[in-house]
Amino acid sequence: MTPRTALITGAGRGLGLAVAAELARRGLRVVVTARDAASAARAAARTGPGVLAHPLDVTDPDAARGAAERLPAVDVLVCNAGVLLDAGHDPLTVPDGLVERTVAVNLLGGWRVARAFVPGMVRRGWGRVVFVSSATGSFHLGLWSGAPAYALSKTAVNGLTTLLAERTRGTGVLVNAVNPGRVRTRMAPAAERTAEEAAVDVADAATLPDDGPTGAFLARGRRIPW
């Protein structure tokens, strides 16, 4: 059988790069994307033979649509690209610019990429979409006031997950969000969990069986409250 094709955003380093490597290890054809072509090419070379590279700046309104037109049909979409810009700010004083840039990447970026690739999955009758989210955006676990723009952007990502899951229910496309926990990346260099460990959780959600959940918030293989 022809292997499924998986595209990962924000895969130039950190968790995205680890997810690309894990999906390649599981036998998927992987497309590594990053904001510029050189970063994507370096990441693809690090991931392994046969891995494709494509530049994709999720804040560019035309980039996702162009990628969908040029690349092979994508069966698995991992929306990993994200930024944490407002750590240490207060909800009453965080600058508008930081809020706007955070939402542009963390919410709108994933949304426009999904709009570009999910309709093709629906037409083909199979697909998996994973949004990399965070416990900081969970009402149940408590929003993180120490980075208000980041937290609310992840709350919005969780909401987007539920919307797309309902829109695609019964089509063969499963849409879920994953809370990878605090992962040792440039965003959180002191975190205990490695990117490789967290990548297993994301890859599990990206390769769910046909009777797997949709519209769920997942952590370490189990559903957690929103």
TrEMBL record:
Keywords: Oxidoreductase. GO terms for molecular function: oxidoreductase activity. PANTHER family: 5-KETO-D-GLUCONATE 5-REDUCTASE, ALCOHOL DEHYDROGENASE, PUTATIVE (AFU_ORTHOLOGUE AFUA_3G03445)-RELATED. Belongs to the short-chain dehydrogenases/reductases (SDR) family. This is Short-chain dehydrogenase. It comes from Streptomyces caatingaensis.
